[in-house]
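Standup notes
- HV: blocked on the assembly model, inputs below
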Amino acid sequence: MAELTMIQAICDGLATALRQDKRVVVLGEDVGKNGGVFRATEGLWQEFGDERVIDTPLAEASIVGAAIGMAINGMRPVAEIQFMGFIYPAFEQIVSHAARLRTRTQGQYSASIVVRAPYGGGIRAPELHSDSTESLFVHIPGLKVVVPSTPADAKGMLLAAIRDPDPVIYLEPMKLYRSTRQQVRQEAYVIPLGQARQVREGEALTVLAWGAMVPLVEQAAERWAQRGVSWDVLDLRSLYPLDEEAILSSVRKTGRVLIVHEAPKTGGLGAELTALINEHAFLWLEAPITRVTGYDVPVPMFALEDDFRPNQERIDRAVEKVLAF
Amino acid sequence: MLQQSDQAVQFLQPDGSLSDQGRPVWESLSSEMKRKFYEGMVLARTMDRRSVILQRQGQIGTYAPLEGQEAAQVGSALALAKEDWIFPSYRDHGAAMIAGMPLDRILFYWMGRVEGNIAPKGVRILPPCVPIATQLPQAVGTAWAAKWRGESSVAVAYFGDGATSEGDFHEALNFAGVFRLPCIFFCQNNHYAISVPFSRQSATATVAEKARAYNLPGVRVDGNDVVAVYDVMRKALNRARRGEGATLIEAVTYRKGSHTTADDAKRYRNRDEVKEWERRDPLQRLEKRFLIDGTLTRGQVETCHRRCREEVDKAWKKASQAKKAPPTHLFAHVYQSLPAELKRQRAQVEGEAHG
Ligand SMILES: Cc1ncc(C[n+]2csc(CCOP(=O)(O)OP(=O)(O)O)c2C)c(N)n1
């Protein structure tokens, strides 16, 4: 066991996969000699060489397209997109090919790739670096979309994603890269995709969150617990497929739901979660499901970032509303 | 005439002497123009160094330094006419300031304020483009509109060597070639896209030769030679204005510092290389020239540096004292008129702001 930050845990996960499985390669911009702009691939190029840790030209469509091609021919590529805001040149490859290769070839081929991308705000990054467009990918049938929020999850989920036979979009909340350390097991271990993590148990309210919103919600839950109001907090981890059982059983227990995400509200994953709960647990609800989200505006440059992202005040106000209904 | 040239055009050599080709060009320039080269480069460098310090002090966010690339940016921008369009990337504020972007707005940009994206009325500079190479097809479209409207304006896209790997680069050059558009693709080949050297970016030895595939002239120029850059740019602009179409210019240069203040270039560049490029510094080269032919005295050089420092001080004072926009500013200009849901969200923010 070692105390690792999330970024170190990701690096450790990649090293573990590269050691374990000859079919694994890592490719992307600056992942080699430089060790990645966030140091997610630190030391890998030195250990595994240029053929398995590949600095590519600056071309996202080719990074992901080539990864798909490698997967067709038996490899297990992990492609790094430097920031989620730069994934769009590769969108075509992801949407038109990775997501439907299995269907189109009726199982003959599959795009067993992982596309890693840092995402989300909170670190005063330049324009376009802080978007949360996870729901674009959640909307595409054929993809899995996952987001860890702790170092230990980051490693276990990454190893699960690499072993997964389907394409996995693995999103990394930049805000959490170095915010905490946690004991992370040295060996290879897997956190199965599709399972939410119960962060806290409570009776009064179910709160659903993922990525950088999880610690924010934990803090709020702690404050409310001191006032005698306990929350069930779920870190979804897997945005597609959703852990329906965990979500619904919590809702059936508490009857009240708050969803917190940093992506804009309209068409965000919160809307899908609301529909899911309506379809399967409507009769247990005691208040309208409430969302605290980013606004429907382009993610601002960082001077206004704090005004855009959900914060403690906005969460408190929403919780008061949900509980008082 | 602009000819395909794989050999970099160089007029002003690192020791301040002129090449045979360069002498007549230098002699044809007014001393006012020569001074503008110098003042522009000193201003760009002063502003750049101050910005790095401001970032270290936590006053501005992550910053992309341009030191080393002053000649490429200043020389090319000085050749532009007021009606020309500029599509810059995040490292091109040296070009932008020459083309009329006020310094305080440039600082605003790095302070994470959207006001930094807006050029004064009549100055045709688009916001710095962050997603690599995406501004190139746009420059093509603007050039196309200019052609259609019968304007004499030219659209110039600034980008780095890394950008030449993206599909957008190839698509833009192809359009420009097919439709013969008044567009200039100005590549600053500073040898690295973050850590990736040009040899890993491209299997060709130069950027300029890629133009052939699109039937455009591709010109390689010493990007640390302000005189050559200015001259090559002027010719390309004239060519575009005559209706002869686009040009790809490869200004061969070097960024002296790291990619951004969040990067550490020591991880991927060796000291000898950095030192070699220090020797080719664009500003020192012009200073040496001036000392040889007396365009500027030492006193004038010092005055120039002092004035630039004052100008940057003034801009920082203005930018740092400007009031922060209120949270409701998030909703300004998203749409011309706000949809109902957005009005609700705005009202919510207003309510919160008032307690
Ligand atoms: C589409 C896209 N992918 C990745 C990035 C991240 N990134 C920012 S700058 C950069 C390197 C750009 O190099 P180059 O085009 O040579 O320009 P330079 O920074 O050297 O001026 C990268 C990879 C980005 N901004 N856009």
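- HV (later): unblocked. Strands of chain B lie at 5-9, 85-87, 155-160, 183-189, 192-193, 196-197, 218-222, 247-252. The two ends of chain B are 67 Å apart (CA to CA).
- Next: hand off to the docking folks.
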